[in-house]
Amino acid sequence: MKEINKYIDHTLLTPIATQEDIIKLCDEAKYYNFYAVCINSCWVRTAANELNGHDVKIVATVGFPLGTMSTKAKVIEAEKAIEDGADEIDMVMNLGLFKSGLTKETRRDISAVKNAVGHNVLKVIIETSYLDNYEIRKACTLCKLANVDYVKTTTGFANKKTQLKDIQIIKAAIGNNTKIKASGGIANKEQAVAFIHCGADRIGTSNGIDIVFCAKEKLL
Asked: With a threshold of 0.90, does the pTM exceed it?
């Protein structure tokens, strides 16, 4: 099995992150051999320069953290991030549309970004913190219909942390063809391993160093 560091998207999404902070994040990702860094889209070019020649991927957020901007704005942001060097996009689903029962519009919003990124990986943040179990399943169905690559749990900006049951519900809803990124309050190795064993294919966390530092053994 993979070492736990290869599951981790090393994350820094605070609005006050500086260029120096992003460079440090990239240096840490190289040193600990994380799978990717996850950053706001304005820093993609900086990360691309810092990670040039390394296999650490760049994940850019789109429509973050609210997801309430226009579809066109999301598309333009995604296209610019890819142009600047992003390998993957983590976009926020429009919860207002979704909770209004406007499922066709919600799906079109997601599909437009998927079409814009082409062969690049798209993860859709459904923000489980604001959804009940039925809504989680429904959001997963829309993601599957839009052919996204991953369903991601939360932005981490909501009050409620991701729960293991959220991963279980998502896994049952999406099957084996769509992957899962767990994020939101994952602070230590035990939590990360539990989410992976529950079905998560990727872990988004700002605590990656602590997780790897404690994880001396491979996952069983």
From this structure: yes
